[in-house]
Design brief:
Blueprint (H helix, E strand, L loop, with lengths): L6 H17 L7 H12 L4 E3 L2 E4 L3 E2 L5 E7 L9 E8 L6 E6 L8 E6 L5 E9 L4 E10 L8
Length: 151
């Protein structure tokens, strides 16, 4: 015969469950997953360094809202323009941060936003050009107060 549930037993069980939830580590993407997401974005094409400027502070005090800027050197004409810019990370739950579409009428290939960062990591921006080439830039960022963690 089962013992009746007492208030003391319920509190003890609840406290043990709360302590166990603190020990759960968040599921974070890995550098390999970031590299695979970048390969998928580029369709396996060669990605060259250059033409992309990534503006991200090297030290972020609060990972809940890190400022991020991406600018691509392009005349933005019908013959030569940026089609897409994508930003990838290696330590957040998902390796894709954002993908933005552009065209010759965009005027400038520039993207500005704030992102959440789970921990210190490398951020990579990749630009797809109208001629089918891909260009990138990366930056390392140190985060003192983490965000974006899932248990």
């Amino acid at each position: 015969m089962a013992k009746p549930l007492t208030r003391r037993h319920a509190l003890r069980t609840g406290a043990a469950a709360a302590a166990a939830s603190l020990l759960v580590t968040p599921v974070l993407a890995t550098p390999d997953e970031r590299a695979e997401a970048i390969r998928a974005f580029a369709g396996g094409a060669e990605i060259r360094d250059g033409r992309v400027k990534l503006d991200l502070p090297p030290l972020v005090e609060n990972g809940n809202a890190a400022p991020l800027g991406v600018e691509v050197d392009s005349p933005m004409t019908d013959a030569d323009h940026v089609r897409r810019i994508a930003v990838f990370n290696e330590r957040n739950p998902q390796p894709n941060v954002v993908t933005a579409a552009f065209g010759p009428r965009s005027g400038r290939a520039s993207l500005g936003t704030r992102i959440r960062l789970a921990t210190s990591q490398r951020i990579t921006a990749v630009a797809e050009m109208s001629d089918g080439t891909y260009w990138s830039a990366s930056a390392d960022v140190i985060v003192t107060l983490a965000a974006c963690v899932e248990g």
